[in-house]
Amino acid sequence: MDKNFGRTIINWLFSYSDERRMMGYNILSLKKSKDELLNVVSNLEKEISNLKGKQVNNESKQQKLSILVNEYTKRFGTISNKNNFASDIVRMEDEDANIFHHLVSLNGGNEFNKEQVNAIRFDMRTHLRIIAGAGSGKTQTICAKAAYLVLKEKIQERNIVMCTFSKKASQEMKERVNEFLGGNSRIEVLTFHGWFQKGYNVLIKKYPYLEKYGIAGEVPGKVSGKDSHDRILMNLIKQYNLYNFDKYEEKSINERLSYWRNMGYNDEEIVAFIARHFDDKEILKDQLLSEVFSEMLKELERIKRREKVINFDDMLINLKCVLENDSNALSLIQTRYQYIFIDEFQDINPLQKQIIELICPPDYEKSVINSAKLIIVGDDDQSIYFFRGAEPRYIKEFDRQYRQTSIELMTNYRSIAPVVHIGNTLISNNQHDRIKKSMIPHKLNEGDCYAKVFQNEQQEASWIAMQILSLSSDEKPFQDQIGKPNYTETIVLYPNKNQLKSMIIALQEKGIPFVTKSDDDLLGIFGINFFKQSFNLLMDIIDAETIEIKKHLYKQLIKNICLNYYIPFAKSTDLVSDETNYTSEKLTDFICKEKKVSKKEMSVIKSIFRDINAFIKTEELNIKAFVNWLVETPKVKKQLIDEEKDWLLKEVSNVTTLTEFILKYKAVRTLKEEMAEKLREYDNNNYNAVYLLTIHSSKGLGYKNVFVKGIYKNSLPDYRSVDKESIELQPLIEQASPPTTMEEQRRLMYVALTRAKENLYVTYPREVNEKPTLVSQFIKESNIMFREEKI
Asked: How far apart are CA 220 and CA 224, in angstroms?
């Protein structure tokens, strides 16, 4: 073989070997790439599978959301995104951009939303109605509006007045306005009473002759040395022998007068009401109640004028009288302000409304040119004071009286979405008695929102107490109390005093400090109206310093007993005028003659009078027998609800003597007195405690944890509730006995629900005093979720 050829073959073989080796490397590399790609494909297939699963899940959620949106839309109208902030609306080049920057910086950096900006910027060519739903930031909005008028529109601060109902609310508004305006603002922020009294004082100082139209005076302070209006009235009630009317149907003359006057009625109209509804009740012997009452009212006014003493109602009435009777005064007051802010407009009563209409007359139909513009703020869904004369129609019908523009603040910044949703769902059932609207939740964070049912009140209260401990232990410490639960983020709301006792016991057992308002709710059974009246008479008889006073009180006790059998006051007054009638036999015969009773009941009545006559001498009484008889008397039996009756009988069954019962009373009296100081400390943020409060007293508040206790039928809604459209209101108003309407009870429940920021718990027992309860319709109407009972 040729050497060259051999060498060529060898070189070719070597080169092939290198190429083969390279090919081997390439093959290995390609295999590795293939494996990696297959792994990527596998992962992608898994991701696709997961995405398909999520897609199915999202489609399911979208379908549920669509159903929910459709339900919302059917009930409340179109849902729109309300979370548009000032930074999206107020542009840098806008003339008022720096004013909004200033306001936002003083608002904790919290921006205003589109509707709030629109309200603040509104040019006031018309009056302004702001419908501000629960938790919508109305206070910061109207305070910013007032500041904007000063900073942008150059309105003099003295030409603006802001009015609200409570001192606490006015103080909060004043502080906010001062902050927006750099401190020491001259904008007047007043309560209704303060505003109207100040206006009256300005007028009589300029025109002294105006004193003849009102009663120039002041509400006496504790150290003034003057008798108060109430003390003067009580003396006149005794002087004119009107004690019987003062106790008629458990409503005092003072309460009736205040209601009538806040409804805008004058003394002549009040006397006419009494003639129409009470003269035939034989409340006075041989006299017409209306005639005697008329004389008493005249004497009351004479004394008040002479002593220069008024009450809070007079502050309003004084101004109304002056404005109705003097054109100079009317002109001066109408031109005093350019802008009048009225907060919580849904809570004004007819008297306040009449005065507002004098200061700023309705201009919708009449050719009226007002010097001032009204800026009213409120929510008809939170109108819960009909018993004081307030009702939602005043804010609802504002646009029929005034040339106005309405702006709605419907973004709820307080509560989590489920709370807002159940509130919307519940209140929509008032569709015939409200402005149609729907709150939009701003908060996206989660929290509890559910209802729980328990076997009885004790289990209900015990669970609430344990839940409070758990929630409070997770809170940041209160002040320097490191390692201790912080209870200040929690409130327990209840419809009436029946709910309070079990809650207090549960909290005391768990060592949880609490505060509540120092009123008769703390007295337990001793705060039940009809029993309080009888028991207080027994206590007064024991404490009487002379035999004459004791006899007088004994007469009142007999007349109260007769009243419980629907015997007219005139007849019982005639009976007690002769002391020979005080034997148990004669008293029993008198009642049984007037009212047909069984022999068994006659025996019980005689036994009770025998015990009472012995009590006058010994100051000891069979309290069990007394209470068991009292709850079965016709009037009490008709008016007392089962829960209160069972509660009272259960409490009295645990004592053997009146002395022991009085000790129980003194214990709750002590609790009531001590509570006043604790509540002051709590209000000053110096006491770590849970707040127990009636729902009526909770409006305007917001707490992180809210328990709404005792929500069953006859508790909420109240047992007296009636549909508003089913009754004739005027006769009841004329008797100073406004009804409890189902619509307002629903609004009360709505207020309770919307106090919650993060956690809401609605609870009720299956039975009270070992009797089954009926489920409140508001539970169903709210569509709140239930959580299974675990005790």
From this structure: 6
Considering all CA atoms of the chain, what is the largest pairwise distance in Å, rounded to the nearest integer?
A: 166
Half-sphere exposure (Cβ direction) of 645: Cα atoms closer than 13 Å: 14
Out of 5-19, 154-168, 672-686, pick the least confident: 5-19
Residue 646: CB atoms within 10 A of its CB come to 17
**Residue 4's Cα: distance from chain center in Å?**
115
Confirm if 641 and 718 have CB atoms less than 8 A apart: no
Q: Which amino acid is at 233?
A: L
Position 38 scores a pLDDT of 83
Closest CA to 351 of 392, 319, 305: 319
Neighbouring residues of 189: CB distance < 8 A, sequence distance ≥ 6? 161, 162, 163, 164, 170, 173, 174, 177
C-beta separation of 591 from 565 below 8 A? yes
Task: Tell me the C-alpha distance between 437 and 235, whole Å.
Answer: 51
pLDDT at 574: 85
Q: Given phi > 0 = left and psi -120 to 50 = alpha, else beta, which region is 713?
A: beta
Q: Give the per-residue pLDDT at 725.
A: 87
Asked which of 139-153, 519-533, 677-691 is least confident by mean pLDDT, the reply is 519-533
782 CB-side CA count, 13 A: 29
Provide the total of helices (H) and of strands (E) in the chain, helices listed first: 32, 15
Give 662: exposed, middle or buried? Use CB within 10 Å, 0-12, 13-18, 19+.
Answer: middle
| Calpha distance 162→173 (Å, rounded) | 8
Q: Rounded to whole angstroms, how far apart are CA atoms 132 and 111?
A: 17
pLDDT 10s digits, 312-324:
999 999 999 999 9
Q: What is the C-alpha to C-alpha distance for residues 264 and 438, in angstroms, rounded to an integer? A: 33
> How many angstroms separate the first and last alpha carbons of the chain?
106
Contact 271, 290 (CB under 8 A): yes
C-alpha pair distances (Å), 603 with each of 99, 134, 607, 621: 82, 58, 6, 17
Work out the angle at residue 629's Cα, subtended by the Cα atoms of residues 624 and 635, and round it to the nearest 5 degrees: 135
pLDDT above 70: residue 64: no
Q: What is the pLDDT at residue 77?
A: 46
Angle between helices 312-325 and 253-262 (to 10 degrees): 40
pLDDT greater than 70 at residue 84? no
Measuring CA to CA, which residue among 503, 532, 493 is closest to residue 702? 493
Which H/E stretch holds residue 554?
helix 547-564
The confidence band for 68, taking pLDDT boundaries of 50, 70 and 90, is low
Q: Is the pTM of this model over 0.85?
A: no
Q: What average pLDDT does the chain have?
A: 89
Q: Cβ(318)–Cβ(357) under 8 Å?
A: no
Torsion angle of C-alpha atoms 652, 658, 661, 662, degrees rounded to 10? 150
Which segment, 17-26, 281-290, 382-391, 463-472, is predicted with the most confidence on average?
Answer: 463-472
What count of Cα atoms within 13 Å lies in the side-chain half-sphere of residue 416? 17
Q: What is the CA radius of gyration of the chain?
A: 36
Residue tagged 């509660």 (tokens): 647
CB-CB contact of 284 with 569 (8 Å): yes
8 A C-beta contact, residue 743 and residue 691: no
pLDDT of res. 72: 55
pLDDT at residue 564 in the model: 87
User: Is residue 230 within 8 Å of residue 255, measured between CB atoms?
Assistant: no
Reading the block at residue 53, the tokens are 């699963």
Chain-centre distance for alpha carbon 523: 21
105 burial class (0-12, 13-18, 19+ CB within 10 angstroms)? exposed
Q: Give the separation between CA 635 and CA 729, rounded to whole angstroms.
A: 23
